Amino acid sequence: MKGWRVEVKVPASTANLGPGFDAVGMAFQLYTTVSMELADKTVIRLHGDKLEGLPLDKTNLIYKVASLVFERAGYGTPELIIDIDSEVPLTRGLGSSAAAIVGALVAANQLSGKPFTNDELYRMSAELEGHPDNVGASFFGGIIVAFIGEKDVPYVRLPVPEHLEALAVIPDFELSTEKARDVLPTMYSRKDVVFTTGHAGVLIAALATGNLSLLGAAMEDVIHQPFRLQLVPGLEEILKEAHRYGALGVALSGAGPTILTLIDKRKPYDELKDFMIHTLEAYNIHSTVLHLVPDETGVVVNTFRAVTEQRR
Question: Measuring CA to CA, which of 113, 122, 235, 273 is 20 to 30 A from 76?
């Protein structure tokens, strides 16, 4: 689609919600926007204050993912003008890389004439990300429950229960997914596996039925959070005490370091916000708290005449 510019708006996401490790994701109204057009020379431009340090050449993740789409579609390596703007903090556990991958795939697919279906793009995104939860939430909005199969990525999309929103406390330090995964054991006991299957099942059932009273117990986890306590000072206290300040449930958001609490939007949450901030301050960690509203839409695509074409 030479002469056209594609703009893709992708929601942020949280993953796991405790025991739903690599399987459960939820989308939020915090967005990454990727604009892309075919060009004679590749130019990558960053906007906003959340993208500092990202490469401006063809090593940029969005360019590399977009190139993959063009190459698989049989068009070879493209030259692209890419503009990236994001409200999502990097490497904080709110799906920044998933949003970038989804945005790049969808924009490149649109520009190359839509050779791939959404399900094919979803499989590509899950393979690139390594797990289907964040990318699924970014693609489809709402709550996604999924796994990577041999030939496809089976998933169920659930609407977010009425009145359910979130508070996220974002520590002022980065934590790579690789580092957070390196602390996990390679083997688990039968007791821990049974604990996880039961809690994950009740978590998904509670979300599907809107039974918010079950979230506190259902979001307890033994698979990854206990091993990541050492990486996120204050996490242990917030996991244990957040319910006293009004949290319906609490979990490390993805690999962290962001800590997510689910709340009932009809109830005040100032005490919960102050508790989380002060807990991290006790460890000399500055933080930001975001009130997150679920996104039910997923990816939004708009196509325009490219500026270079409009000037002709």
Answer: 122
